[in-house]
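ok so heres the complex, two chains, lmk if somethin looks off
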Amino acid sequence: MKIASWNVNSLRVRLEQVLEWLESTQVDILGVQETKLQDTNFPLEAINSAGYDVLYSGQKTYNGVALLAHRERVVEKLGPMLYPVTNLPGFDDTQKRILAATIGDLRIINLYVPNGAVPDSDKYRYKLAWLEALYEFLRIQLNDHPRMVVMGDFNIAPEDADVHDPKKWEGSVLVSPRERKALQKIVSLGFCDSFRQFAQEDGQFSWWDYRAAGFRLNKGLRIDLILASDAILEHLTGSWIDREPRAWQRPSDHTPVVTEFTF
DNA sequence: ATGGCGGGTCTAACCCGA
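and the predicted structre for the whole thing:
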C-alpha cells in the first residue's frame, strides 16, 4: 500500500493535478493539506468519481485538510474511514489543521502544522503550543492505536540534511532548535521518519519557494514527512519524494511524498 | 539587503505562506 502526503496550496486550483497524479501513481491513501476550501465547496463528487472515499475539514481562505482512501484497494479490503478527529483535544483552535481516521487497524493522521512566521513571534508561539498539544494527542492515540501513520506538512526540516543551505537558514523558522526539538519529542513517542529508513541521495526536498527560481536551483527544504509507528516499522518497503508534479504548469510549491508498506 | 511568486479575498496603499 502506498500512502502519500501533499500540500496542494489550494485544492480548487490543484484538483486536476491531484486526480491525474493519483491515477498515474496508484497511490492508495493521500493526505492533502492547504485545501483552502470551506466544506460546502469541497469537490466531493470529483474525488468520489475518481474512485476515492474522502474526509475533509476545511475553512475559508486558509488551512484545510482532507484524507482520501481508494475505495477498491483500501476501503473494500480494510474497511471505511472511521472515528474522524478534526481537532486537537483540549486545544482551543479555529484553524483546520488535523484530520485523523481509522482504516482497519491502522490509524492515519494528516497534519498541517503551523508555519510559525519568525522565531519568538505570536505565530511561532502558536506553532510550539500546537506541537505540544499534538504530542499529547499522539501519546494517547498510540496507546489505543499502535499501528499509526502520521503524515503531513510539518513545516519543520528535521535535520540540516533536509535544508539546501543550512548556514543560510540557521535559526530561521522551519529549522530553529525549539521546533526541531518539539518534532524530535513527537518522533520519540515511537515513530520513525520513514524517508530516512532508506538510503537516500543528498539534496532531496519537498518544498521549493516559488520565488527566485527555487525549484530550478533546487533551493528547497524537506518539510513534508510521513512518520510510521514502531509497530509497523517492519512493513515499510520504501519512501520517496515525487518531484514530477513540482515541474508541472501552475504547480503547488510542495511536491508529494510517498511511503510504501507491505500491507 | 531586498524582494521575488502565487494562493486567498474585503480586488488592495490587502493578507499569508515557507
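quick notes: Residues 9-10, 12-13, 34, 36, 60-62, 115-117, 153, 155, 172-174, 207, 209-214, 221, 223, 250, 252-254 of chain A lie near DNA strand B (CB under 10 Å from a C1'). thats all i got rn
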